[in-house]
Amino acid sequence: MPSDQLLEVEDLTTTFGTDDGTLTAVDGVDFDVDTGETVCIVGESGSGKTVATESITRIIKTPPGEIEGTVRYKGRDLLAMPESELRDIRGNEIAHIFQNPQEAMNHCYTVGWQITEALQIHQDVSDEEARAKAVDLMDRVGIANASARFDDYPHEFSGGQKQRVMIAMALVGDPDLLIADEPTTALDVTVQAQILRLLDELQEEFDMGVLFVTHDLGVVAEIADRIVVMYAGKVMERGGVLDIFDHPAHPYTQQLLECLPEFGGTTVGGIPGTLPDPHDPPDGCRFAPRCEYAEGACRAGEQPEEIEVSPGQRVSCVHYRPGMDPSVVRNDNFEPVGGDGAADGEGGVSRADD
Ligand code: SF4
Fold it and tell me: For residue 72, what are the CA distances in angstroms to 64, 76, 110?
């Protein structure tokens, strides 16, 4: 394992027992995060990205959840270790920030009390030391007059300030990996930009790996080093941020980008159609029911194997072969694979290895 690899997730599968049968939220997903880099998991609501990240530290309730696969953090498998051992890592070496700070905070206690409590859970420090550290953390995340605001209650903070407090609480253990799940979704655009800038600065200062979950590719463009695109519990595409924005290969990624006017997208109101029922996903490619390039070969067997189309960029789509032009599915040379129900296509991409 390379020395800078912090997290390595292999074949992660998370299911839930429900009254309607087994729901598979995450289905055989792989990804990794290196020290000091930001990996964004992106996809629509229901794609499985949140469940995947919550499975890493097993904060999914089991039962009804069941988590399988391997999650190696600094070489140790988090899914195989006893809960007592994992508790030392969770909130300490690996910290989470969630979407809604309003719900994550206790409104009966002062903000300072909540940060010091988090500190004293993880560190053997006196009340005075905890207070000094809490004020320092509040200061570092940009809470003005931190010392004076220590005794304020959450309702006395704005939404952006509350998220800064949540970030301060996440930093109490000096984490090596920060998992941030839609941390800016509830904030207005200006505050969102401030929080993203803050996370960027803190990542450098703390030399953390960041696993960032979002449905917003505009946010991804700001912060990602690498991107993992998820759909219906599967990885559709992965690659460096420039690969994904310059030459997105998977039709789903292309359609996500088409929803971004700031990147020239013209789709209004999101991608047409809905995600498949996770109790009964379709055979073949999960995206087939919404894909304009779908044909018979897409609708049989398993999700297509990921194919590397450029260094580090891999795509799960029947239309690709190794090293193939990552834009082939959307350019005029698109050629169907063939089979029942094949989409119409003209011209021909050279596919000598077919
Ligand atoms: S495998 Fe078929 S359905 Fe899936 S993205 Fe590719 S073309 Fe579309």
Answer: 23, 5, 36
